[in-house]
Specification:
alpha+beta, 5 helices, nine-stranded mixed β-sheet, Endonuclease, Chain A, globular, 165 residues
């Protein structure tokens, strides 16, 4: 199988293609001035969140009137393996919201980057990193509905700092 994104039909086939698609979507969000971003995954283990191009795109996108929402079933990996992303998050904590889905909802958490009104990068097969890039309104609406439903049943989690005694 190919490890590239086919530009003609926006197929994601492979881990490298998934990472390129995520980075491109974040670049597009920064360039277009998108007001909101959603990052959704069971644990973000396969996301390139600590890589310089991703952090650069997030930095160009970030603005005080924007909102980044993360939705996950578990934040352990994010908290232990992505120090550079955690540092970025501390700087922009006022625009970042982290939601934790309830345990019974965990199996329905997709791997999805969603930029409302612009694009969605979604893996339909996480094991093989296969998915699609969606741009049409008819493709974006179900992504938005899914995230909305999951977020309504989720709770705030993953604080920026943990206080100890």
């Amino acid at each position: 199988m190919s490890d590239s994104t086919e530009s003609g039909n926006d197929i994601i086939d492979g881990r490298a293609a998934f990472h390129r698609a995520l980075t491109a979507a974040l670049d597009e969000a920064a360039t277009s001035g998108a007001q909101q971003l959603w990052l959704c995954d069971p644990d973000f283990a396969d996301w390139p969140l600590a890589q310089a191009p991703v952090l650069d795109a997030l930095g160009r996108w970030a603005h005080s009137q924007r909102r980044l929402t993360l939705l996950a079933a578990d934040y352990t990996v994010l908290g232990t393996r992505f120090a550079r992303w955690l540092e970025w998050r501390r700087q922009w904590s006022h625009i970042v919201r982290c939601l934790l889905v309830h345990e019974e909802e965990a199996p329905s958490v997709p791997s999805l980057l969603f930029v409302p009104g612009f694009t969605a990068v979604r893996l339909h097969d996480r094991d093989r990193h296969r998915g699609r890039i969606h741009r049409a309104a008819t493709e974006l609406a179900p992504c938005h509905q899914l995230l909305d439903a999951l977020s309504q049943r989720a709770e705030e989690s993953f604080p920026v700092t943990t206080l100890g005694l």
